[in-house]
Each structure stands twice: as C-alpha cells, then as structure tokens.
Design brief:
Layout lengths: L1 E9 L6 H11 L6 E7 L6 H5 L6 E5 L6 H6 L7 E7 L3 E2 L4 H11 L3 E9 L5 E2 L8 H9 L5 H7 L19 E5 H6 L12 H12 L1 E12 L9 H18 L5
Parallel strand pairs: 1-2, 1-4, 2-3, 6-9
Antiparallel strand pairs: 4-8, 5-9, 6-7, 6-8
Length: about 260
C-alpha cells in the first residue's frame, strides 16, 4: 500500500501544471511512498507535452473528451491503494511541508475523513474558502450583487470562525482536498452529475455523514486563483446549472 496518492485533473493547464508538479515532488518527504495521477480532459494546449516528461511516480491518463472535474478525479477510484488521497488543482503550489504535516495530522485523528488547509494567494493573502452549506440567497448575492449584504457574505464564508484553529467545515474547497482514501472510496468519490462547481460542496456533505471534515490551520497551500467562472458566460451558466442540481439533491433553502 502507498502512503499517498494524488490526482490532478488538467484541461488546458499548460501555464500551471509544471510548477504544480515540481512543487509537489520536491516537497513530499522522501520516506512517503506516493503516486500522482494526471487525468487530462482532452487539452488542446501543451499540457500533455509538459506532463509526458514526468516518469516514475507519475501516471498520465488521457481522456478523449472533457468529462468534467469530478468525473476526471473518479477515473482513478479503482486504482487507489493508498492510506490518503489528495485532490489537487493544477494551479496549486506546494512551497512547504504542508503535505507531510497533514499526513501526520490525519494519522493522529482517525475521526477525520477530509482535511482542508489554509489557502493563500501568491502574494500571501488568505483565501477564505471554507463555507457553510449553500442556500439560494447567499449564492444570488455572491454572483449578482457581491458588493451587498457584507455581513451575510461573511457568515457564509465562515469569517466568524478563528482561522488559526481547527473547526468543522460544511463546504470545503475542491482546490486541495486531503481525504482518507477508504472514506473517498466508500462514498464512491464525486457525484459525476456535477460537471463543474458544487461537486466539492456535495462531497463535503457526504463525507460529513460518514466522518468529519476539518479545517487544518497549521500550514497552507498557494492557489493562483483566476476566477475564470466569473469571467465567461459559459462557465457562469455551468455554475448556475450545478447550483440547481445541488438544490435538487439536497433541498432548496432560500435563506
């Protein structure tokens, strides 16, 4: 059995993926046995050329179409023979011992099925990505009137919590998710009906039914977050569709 498996789903990720892989490989403790799966969703740029140079602990899986975020990560479900499995976005940079530290923390806390770390911008500013369960009102103001209802938005982003201490998370970000592998496999990974967006809200909720999802405050990853979903109409429509799918599955709350 491996200590850690990692899956990264790429789609036209040539600008990010090399830095992500170098950072991961250089920062994992040499005593940890690991494997990285790269699932490429039919990229049209140089992503495959870049990842093809990585051998040994890296396996590249080429898809003939873009199957989406969750389905891409689920491709490796039957191949996981590890203690822990990490979901990593291609725009994540590991610049410290965060993987090793989270490994040790999970080893000591058997009640945790999913751990989510601090996430920072490249300039060091915090990204507050822990959230409460989505409701229609919170999503409406964040998408259409982000300048309004600041107190309400702060509550949704759990800014009432102390981000220097561990706390339970109803909705963890999908950019970096540190799973106990047997929990990830027990819930059969992501719900593939979500092409993009809210698959992380859904899987967090399902993990919380089996164990606990906890915010890990003692270390961080860097996320070069470009917020593409708020720039392109097609991605906005995908996000809206996923939101309605989430509410259909878990029930619609307006407030």
């Amino acid at each position: 059995m491996l200590d850690i498996t990692i899956s990264i789903v790429t789609y036209n990720s040539a600008l990010d993926i090399d830095n992500a892989l170098v950072s991961i490989i250089s920062k994992i403790d040499k005593r940890i046995k690991y494997k990285i799966f790269i699932v490429d969703n039919n990229s049209k740029d140089n992503t495959l050329l870049i990842v093809s140079k990585y051998k040994n602990n890296v396996e590249v899986i080429k898809m003939n179409k873009n199957v989406g975020f969750g389905a891409g990560h689920n491709i490796v479900l039957d191949r996981l023979n590890s203690k822990f499995h990490i979901i990593v976005n291609p725009d994540i940079i590991i610049n410290n011992s965060v993987i090793n530290d989270m490994y040790d923390y999970m080893d000591e806390h058997f009640n945790i099925g999913l751990l989510t770390p601090k996430v920072k911008y490249p300039n060091g500013d915090m990204q507050y990505l822990c959230k409460r369960d989505p409701n229609f009102f919170d999503l409406f103001i964040r998408l259409l009137i982000p300048f309004a209802f600041k107190k309400r938005q702060s509550r949704y982003m759990m800014l009432d919590k102390n981000y220097d201490e561990p706390f339970k998370v109803p909705y963890a970000t999908g950019c970096f998710m540190f799973f106990r592998t047997d929990v990830f496999k027990e819930i059969k990974g992501f719900d593939e009906r979500f092409f993009l967006h809210f698959e992380d809200a859904d899987i967090t909720r399902r993990v919380n039914e089996k164990s606990e999802v906890i915010f890990y405050p003692y270390n961080y990853v860097i996320h070069d977050w470009k917020r593409e979903s708020k720039k392109k109409l097609r991605l906005i429509l995908i996000m809206v569709k996923s939101a309605f799918m989430y509410f259909k599955k878990w029930g619609l709350r307006f407030y």
